[in-house]
Amino acid sequence: MNTESITARKFPKWAKIVSIVLGSLFVLLVLLWLLAGWYVNSHKEALLKKITTYVSEHLDGQFKIGDMQPALFKGFPDVSLELEDVSLGDSLIGVHHRNLFQFESVFAKFNLFSMLSGHPHITKMTLKNGQINLFTDSSGYTNSYLLNKKNRKKKTSPRQMEVSAYQLENILFTFDHKPKNKKIQFLIVNSAGAVKHRGQMAYIVAPTEIHINQLGFNLAKGGYLVNKEFKSKLHLSYDRQKGILHLPFQAIRINQTNLKVGADFQFKTGSKGFTIIVESPSIAYKEAVSYLSRSIADKIQKFNLAKAISLQVSLKGKFQYPDTPLVHARWQTTKNDFQTNFGELKDASFAGEFNNEIYPGKGRGDANSAITVNHLSANYMDIPIVADSIRLFNLLHPLLDFKMTSGFPVQRLNTALSHTFNFTKGSADLKVDYHGGISTHDSLGHSIVGGLKIKDAAFTYVPHNVHFSEGNIDLDFNGADLIINNSTLSTGKSDMQLHGIAKQFLNVYFDDPQKAAFEWYLHSDTLNLAEFKGLMQQRQIRSPRQQRRQHHRVNERLAYLMEKSRMKVHASIDRLYYSSFTASQVKGDLEMDENSIVLDPLSMNFADGSLEATLKMEPGSQDVPFNLNANLAGINTSKLFYGLENLGQSTLTSKNIAGQFSGKINIGGRLNNQSDIVKNSLNGKASFKLTGGQLINFAPFKSIQKFVFKKRDLSHIAFAPVSNVLTIKNGKVNIPQMDIASSVINLSIQGIYAFGPGTDLGIVVPLRNPKKKAERAAKGLKPRKNKGIVLHLRAVDGKDGKVKIVWDPLRKGPDEDTAEDE
């Protein structure tokens, strides 16, 4: 039987040697590691003193360590120490009770061999649950001197302690400078950094999470980035020789917004400062505004953009006074909806920038800041606009400059002006250069140069429903004034040429529309007042609450201005008519405000004579009160009655009367919502003289023939001059005794004549022949008054509404006394 001998495989000799060496080294390392732990634990007091002395040699202040423990199992094979209650305070810590820094735990892991070489290398340092406080109190005392290295006579090794990694957990950093009212505070929630050293350079990669309480460079204006969450995997480098901390351009996250940031911080004496660049390809406007200080945000948060914008910001500043950074921000957006104080800009595309130092050397801040918007194109209330440059200067007292042009169908103005004007056709060209404040009540004032030209327009003046079939309007802005040049308006039956000015129009438009005053010059070849009856009709009344809520809108504010403003019109009209009233060579001054329409003076040629008058009306209610004072001379009575539509009665018409009328009228009353006279509202006095008077086919006289004068011709009666003073009360005319003498009949009339129901006239008719009266007069004898047979009649309302003459044998008709009592 064959047997095989199996021999164990033998390791090569060199492998055994290597294994023995490595094992020995490992055992040695463990022994050294245990020895180091024993040494730390057994020499704790001496080591604490040594560490305290080392720090004290390099820094001023009171450096303290509460306790120290070896942390063997946290860092094998490195040696680890855990320090508890580590703090550095200044000499006045007992007064202000604030350490420069204070940590509950400081964990340091040392490379074992570096400790043996005499140049300790910290592979990782962890700071937990602590605070870092830099402050300057109101007296000017600061604890920042603790950061300065002591000048030591001993020469030290050029090599410094190196740290390969660090971690910060729950560390609150506060910079508080009372004299400059600054406070910067943020909580480092977690930051774990890996450090590589190459000569004088240290390269750091550190995933970091920070809660920013505020960056308060001036607490009176509020802080930046208040209560924001910061996250990023930071890449940094530090040049120890030059003292520069460099942050390459990289991604960060603030709240839910992705940004890119790059920065340089210079810590060398004489050139201490920083440069920070921030970019975002897409950030919400409100989010960007929330990063800013309260003083800036309050001014621009009234604006808003519906969609995100692209943003770039650069900051350059110093760590020593003057330490306000230079801020330059730029942004771009397309097809965005932009909300402003003047309304919303739809589909807005523009680029903008902000700079807080417009004039070098004059300080950095709101007073020397500007916001600029370039290449703006948008739709404003359906109006397409283009603005090359919009600049907002001085955020303390904002001053706005912009130039704007546009051409569009005039119907697009309806969105902006629908409460005032409604256009149905035409074209418009707009060109304005604005300079002034951005708020309605602004002490800087408001100035516009440019204008609006409207051609071939048809529109309605909405508040009073007045229609214009053709209009060419040339509005010019000359600073604060509004000027109308060579504008023409036509209705169906009227034409007007208009020019004028509104002084300080723009300032009162923004400040107090009730102070607006227009002065126009109007000429018309033909003017039909019936087309403008709406000016006397009741306007829509809005509550004060509605008015206050809506005045800031362009539409509502213009309607309010037109309603509340004062207008003075110097009118010259070749031909004026209203219904059957016709006049020529009309001249007058018309003044209008919210509560009244006044014509004073007013003159015209009317009914072959002349009329001079003043007229006051008070529109705005259901019935329009009016008051008329008029002087009439040489008026054709028939034309007078025709033009005044027979004074609203049918008994005596223009067909029944002739003669020349002169008189004075002072009468008041009301017009209804159709601009017709409310007859029972009339009150006043009228004095007149009628010469060459004739009554033609006057029905009441014809009815007298039922009783007497059947053989006399009463169809055409010429009578001597007649004059009287009439009193009008509640639409009824009190006629004192008035004697009328003619070749056919003599009579005396007195009593009440009503424009509506209520006529009651006493008529006394002597039967004697008027020719006998003429014969007595020829002989020089006095006429016999009421001698002979006298007929007493009475004029009263008939069932058909017309005045009828009835027999009054009992003399119940009004006499002189009863007539006056009425």
Tell me about this structure.
- With 822 residues, the chain is α+β, with helices and mostly antiparallel strands.
- It is 16% helix and 52% strand.
- The chain is built from 15 helices and 39 strands.
- It has a 39-stranded mixed beta sheet that branches.
- Strand 28 and strand 29 form a beta hairpin.
- The longest helix is centred in the first third of the chain and has 30 residues, at 13-42.
- The radius of gyration is 51 Å and the shape is rod-shaped.
- 21% of the residues are buried.
Uncertain regions: pLDDT < 50 for 5+ in a row? 3-7, 26-30, 541-552, 818-822
- Strand content is over 45%
Helix/strand structural class = alpha+beta
- Characterize the main sheet: 39 strands, mixed
Give a topology summary:
Layout lengths: L12 H30 L1 H15 L3 E9 L1 H4 L3 E11 L3 H4 L4 E10 L1 H6 L3 E16 L25 E2 L1 E13 L4 E17 L2 E16 L11 E12 L4 E11 L2 E10 L6 E11 L1 H6 L3 H7 L3 E2 L3 E10 L7 E15 L2 E13 L14 E11 L2 E11 L5 E11 L4 H4 L3 E16 L9 E16 L4 E14 L1 E10 L4 E8 L2 H7 L5 E12 L15 H7 L3 H11 L1 E13 L2 E12 L4 E10 L2 E9 L6 E13 H7 L13 E15 L5 E20 L2 H6 L11 E4 L2 E8 L2 E10 L4 E9 L5 E7 L3 H9 L11 E8 L5 E5 L8 H6 L1
Parallel strand pairs: 4-5, 4-6, 25-26
Antiparallel strand pairs: 1-2, 2-3, 3-4, 6-7, 7-8, 8-9, 9-10, 10-11, 11-12, 12-14, 13-15, 14-15, 15-16, 16-17, 17-18, 18-19, 19-20, 20-21, 21-22, 22-23, 23-24, 24-25, 26-27, 27-28, 28-29, 29-30, 30-31, 31-32, 32-33, 32-34, 34-35, 35-36, 36-37, 37-38, 38-39
